[in-house]
Each structure stands twice: as C-alpha cells, then as structure tokens.
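User: I'm curious whether this sequence folds into something compact or stays loose and floppy. Could you predict its structure so I can see for myself?
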Amino acid sequence: VESYNLALNEQGFHLTDKEIVDNCFGKKETDICLKLGISEKTEQFSNTYFEAVKNHYTKGKLFQGVVECLEGAKKKGIKLGIISYAYNWYVQGMISGLNIEKYFDIVIGQDDVKKAKPDPEAIFLACNRLNIDPQESLVVGDSRSDIVMGNTGGCLTCLFHPAGHGLFYSLESLKESKPTYIAESFDELKE
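Assistant: Here's the prediction. I'll summarize afterward.
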C-alpha cells in the first residue's frame, strides 16, 4: 500500500488505503495507469512504485508463526512453493529480505506463465516441476484468485485471513470462492 501510495501521490492522486487495494492490487501497472487516465506516465509510475517496493524488502515482517510453520513442513518432507502474480525479481527480493528463501523449493511468478491467477496454469507448472499431483497439494492464499486457482487446479485450498485483513478482502466475499479450509493464523495452518 505504501509503495502504491508513493507512486500515486507523485502523479497527483491521493487515495485511501482501501481505494489503493481496490484499484491497484492484482493489477499490472499499465492497467492501473490506463484506468487512472495517465497511460503516458506508466513508466514513471512503475519506476517509482518498484523503487519503493525494493526499499521495503528488509522492512517487511512475517506473521507470527510463519517460520515455525515452514520449518515444520520441511521437517515432514513437504515440498513448498510460492505462486505469485508479482514479478519473479519482486518475490525473490521479498523472500530473500525476509530470510525465508531456504524453505521454498520453487517460486512461480508472472514471468513464468502466460495466464495470471485465477487461471490454474501456475498450479500445473509448479506441480509438474515439483513432481507432485495437484490433488495431493494444498494452496494457501489470501485472495479470491488464489482460492479459485487452487480449486480449478484440483487442489485443496486454505484461505488465510488473519485479523485486520478485512481492509484488503471481505471474509464473507472470500468464502464465496469455496476454500476447503479457513485459517486466521499460522498456528492453525500447522494443524
């Protein structure tokens, strides 16, 4: 939200956090700028946004229980991957900055697929590379597109919706995507 806010302010837009979530999350920079009527400033907007994102790599904080959950999964021999709508360099920078890259066997970003979430292309690619069956996989996500992608790909799904997440997504709306499970904490995910 902070990175988008910086880029938007530079272009003369002052949006609430909720408006930023609604207008920017899950969208490409070209589409954001087109919707805002500033297509000619896409490059400047993108540069400001991505520079701000890079500055957040070391400032990010993990939810309580994340490391214990990841360590527990690895000890059980569970293969872990990340599927993101973000660019690979962005995801790699975040997990490196958070010092959790050692837990993941694979990272699939928008650079790796032709179709974005909720299309299951990324699920099939990840499962193929990990040599696992989608039906024996669990997709954990915090958005409708994550859950729909997992369901469409034949996976079990878990909606992660911690306290305070209502700014980003309505729980009632997310339930309509029919997750197999719902968890509010990483302690619940460990189970």
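Summary: The mean pLDDT is 92. The longest helix spans residues 42-56.
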